[in-house]
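User: I'm putting together notes for a lab meeting next week and I want to include a structural view of one of the chains we've been expressing. I don't have a solved structure, so I'd like a prediction I can at least talk through. The sequence is below, exactly as it appears in our construct file.
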Amino acid sequence: MAQLLSTSCSLKIRSCRKPYFQQLNHGLISFPTSFTVKTSTYPVQRVILPAESSQRSHTVYATTTPLTPSQPRSALNQSSNNPSKAKRVMVIGGDGYCGWATALHLSNKGYEVAIVDSLVRRLFDHQLGLDSLTPISSIHNRLRCWKSLTGKAIELYIGDICDFEFLSETFKSFEPDAVVHFGEQRSAPYSMIDRSRAVFTQQNNVIGTLNVLFAIKEFREQCHLVKLGTMGEYGTPNIDIEEGYITITHNGRTDTLPYPKQASSFYHLSKVHDSNNIAFTCKAWGIRATDLNQGVVYGVRTDETAMHEELYNRLDYDGVFGTALNRFCVQAAVGHPLTVYGKGGQTRGYLDIRDTVQCVELAIANPAQPGEFRVFNQFTEQFSVNELAALVTKAGEKLGLNFKTISVPNPRVEAEEHYYNAKHTKLIELGLKPHLLSDSLLDSLLNFAIQFKDRVDSKQIMPSVSWRKIGVKLKTVTA
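Assistant: Thanks for the context. Below is the predicted structure for the 479-residue chain, given as structure tokens.
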């Protein structure tokens, strides 16, 4: 609870008709029916907190960035039709790994930024007994630190975008010119733990995105949606992967169609559903949208997150949320064998977290046209799991680290040796300057892992979620 409350806010709680986080509400966190804390007279914004175990939920009002009486919201609105004024960008999921780095980067570049987040990612850690390698400050402390260092304020709206009443009030209050949508459950293993997590992943991701689309249609029709998809939507076809669309000739006729999708988890399937819903609403309602099919992200530092320890980004190394290169570097730092799943030939697109924020900024600065559904493949290089392990081994040896590489049974259902060649030219054409995986980057990431190695819980390293063994019974991964 302490992470959710600012010392300079006015809070009121009242009953809300819509239950929050229904699928995973197992009584882990409960709140009193009502309470009031008043230390401020600033305007308030609505936020949502997790429900009690009785499935009642509450609406909480708390201050965001204060406005003076002489500066009403209408006077501060930054219109996309006025290029002399900064664009207003809403970052949904701005407390997460990619979202936090993006929110700071955009704020630093002069955009007016608001973070919308339910803070549920922090709840996942508590539920599963996981923790970031890096200590993570509360979202309020993060934003206070950013304001102190830069003088730039980022507005905060805490709530669930699956609650359309909350989302609509947030849209009407902030009036975004662009929405960057990171607000989804983003882990394939998490979606495969058990039935409840599979259902939650699809419900949260698909309904949340639908709500965003309806909010744009109703309240900000010129707003540009920048949606984080995943390269995992494509699967591993035995032909080149194009950027969103493919031109085919069949029985003498030619057409350009959406590239076929072969998702490999309930999480990846939710992303496919998102893409289809966004494409449809662009056609039907004239929404402008960019779907960023992102590869696997590595690294933890950006120019902004490195400014102060209160701004550190999270770094996941566990078998549920950790991605391959980040996990290998942490394993190497503590002398644990690098865990290659199966044959290790699984090849994917990868990119540095610094390129994630750069790609999002490029998409915002070069928006889609009304009715246009653009798809960009967002990665900079391709590696197999074996290639990553070899690179980490080479870099680790230079630092005197002692570890080996082992093959472990693959918990996933996937091809372990396959053809993979994905196109990724559109962001380069817009001006992306990639940070390629270099020896210096690996050295930096390994040293960062060494710095925090005392926080590593070795029990979280090995894979604990099996695609084939998923069932109805609720599981606790660490049990």
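A couple of points you could mention at the meeting. Confidence is low (pLDDT under 50) at residues 1-81. The two ends are 25 Å apart (CA to CA).

User: Perfect, that's what I needed.
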